[in-house]
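REQUEST FORM: STRUCTURE PREDICTION
Request ID: SP-0412
Submitted by: Lab K.M.
Chain count: 1
Length (residues): 818
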Amino acid sequence: MPIFFNFLLSLSLFLAVSFAVDSTSTFLNLNDGRTFVSKRGIFELGFFSPGTSTNRYLGIWYKKIPVRKVVWVANRCSPINDFSGLLTINSTGNLVLLNQNHSVVWSTNSSKAAKKPTLELLDSGNLVLRDEADRNSETNFLWQSFDYPGDTLLPGMKFGWDFRKGLNKLLSAWKNWDDPCSGDLSLVMEAKHDIYPQAYIQKGTETHFRSGPWNGIGISGSPEIRPNQLFDYHLVFNDNETYYMYTLKDNSVIMISVLNQTNRVFQGLIWMEGDQSWKLYSEAPRDDCDNYSRCGANGNCVISQTAVCQCLKGFKPKSQQKWDLRDWSEGCVRKNPLNCPEEKYKDEDGFAKLVGIKIPDTRNTWFNDSMNLKECRVKCLSNCYCVAYSNRNIRYGTGCRIWFGDLMDMRELSDTEQELYIRIPASELEIEKAARKLGAIIVVSVLGPLSGMLLVGFYFCRKTLKGRNKKTSRKNRAKDQEFELPLFSQDTISIATNNFSMDNKIGEGGFGPVYRGMLEDGQEIAVKRLSLSSRQGINELKNEVILIAKLQHRNLIKLLGCCIDKEEKLLVYEYMPNKSLDYFIFDQEQSKLLQWPKRFEIICGIARGLQYLHQDSRLRIVHRDLKASNILLDKEMNPKISDFGLARTFGGDQSEGKTNRVVGTYGYMAPEYAFRGLFSTKSDIFSFGIMVLEIVSGKRSVGFHHKNNASLTIIGHAWALLKEGRPLELIDAHLRDSYDNLQEVLRCIHVALLCVQQRPVDRPSMLAVILMLGSESMLPQPKPPGYFIETDSHGDHSSSKPKASSKNTMTMTRFMGR
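STATUS: Completed
RESULT:
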């Protein structure tokens, strides 16, 4: 037998080059110099030498990627020091890897006997051993490589625990580029009863990073890792398994997650075919505040601050000396002890609310998914050792989690709605109450002399208005009928939004907050609530109701109903799960998910919506506040124009209007509107051109900064590049591998510059824009644009700002929210 084995080895070396065996072929032996390929040619199994090493390993890699990235290694810590490796199936039906001496270097451990064991490399990258009798089974494997991850998590691979097999499917980094053996860096999932487990990066026995648990929307410590148009994220928890897994929505995308020993990070990578290189998609830890317990016990890390560590409310540094030396290892301690409720809540503790937070380490917590937040508060107060509480599922505001002992590993996060309630003693609350009381005394002392006059005035005003209210109520009922919309009761909306809970808040518009809700029939809604403290907005809200109720188009937001009841003024819309356009195009990570084909669809969709407003609807409407944050995206990423509070209608042959109150957002206003209050469909087209430049470049018009010319606006930058024959430099770097038709991108830049020309008469109509975007005909040359050079010497905003003039009686109102 050894002589025959040596003969096969010599023959394979003599043949010299790799010979690929299709996975559908009957597997006999695989020796060094041959490879085994998946059915569609995506993955390849064979022998390789990593880096500068001469050792040989059996591994799996992407076949068609020239920059070889090995995603799994069989004999990680048992290298073969020559070219004698042979992979075969032994008499017990297990895979075995043999060296020249016929010693077993590596083998599988299937305990189930197989009549006819076969090996297959799936197009998922999973190497599976199965019985030929069960070949049609998708999951009935004798053994699979996905059960034994290396340093790489592939789509469809489970990360977590299989309690039936006793498998801990963790990731472990290579020691270095030359050695795939497990280093001291690993990514593990805690094995506990919690339905929302956490993952940790461990360096030896020391915790290096904590992901935080799933919170109903995403991973709480990494809010950018949530289902999107690129991939779905799955959490499975039952008696048999607990695991996370991601699956790609587009099989043409190549995406992996790798634990890197050198940089001590867990990285999400996407293969960019155009650059022929791997591009970073996500990373953990991503900054200093992601390092586990950066600020010690009861400390909060705020990366935007110079001194990143802060004590939580009611706490102080444990060691002032170390604190001053930037050593926060000892963390923070309470200023005053908590009051244990032994005397029936005589001196009841209270809670400080934190919003936008990575919740503390959950290893020392208690939870109950049937409780609401109010019940959770009571539960916490009833336990002397409870120090904080929160919801477990922020999507629906359900579940209760309470913490005991020190709060570890907290940080501020701007892109999460997570709330945490930290217990503080009554003495701390008394200080706050005293401060508020002092403020009230000061206000009363100042306003006291005026109070008598105010009361007299109030009496006469009330008497006069009382008679008017009867007439007004009749008029309001008639106006509600004109809305042509269902009228919701305040109770219905309150129930749907969990009484306007902060857990349901999804944004802040120009006139108040927006909440997510769910009606009794299961329909998801978005509710715009007019701020009670706002002096403006009621007219805009009613204007929006009257206008949008009469509009129906797939690229306009759908208004489902309204509620004007007592002090509440509410608008009920269809819910847009993908937020707004600005959320994607201006974010370094999210922008990678919105590639050119989808961006072009969004541009065309906005154009169709505007054409409907300007020409095809029964009313001619000028929006007056078009901007990226007012373009909402549905679950298919289709654009919907929203926020019609500032819109105006034209009747008959009217084509232009004028106002003394200019409202809108700097950076999007047409010059004739910003300076003279003139608005028309052409001012909307100017705003559309700005948005197209933003979509192509990934840069905001508001706050645009050119490295060589601080006074140049995004329009001026695009114009200069076009005139110099360098328009390609405007394109977002994240897009340069996603477009098949470069002329399509360049055409969009050209059309955008036609839309932002100085004179309204030179700008094309929306119909002309749609035709230009959809054809390949020659385009007219644009004339110089408006706002070519910034005129605001302070440089606070990118668009030109009207200078004060004795002849100009306009007032300008700037809205930055949606």
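NOTES: Residues 1-19, 342-346, 438-482, 789-818 have pLDDT under 50 and may be disordered.
Reviewed by: T.R.
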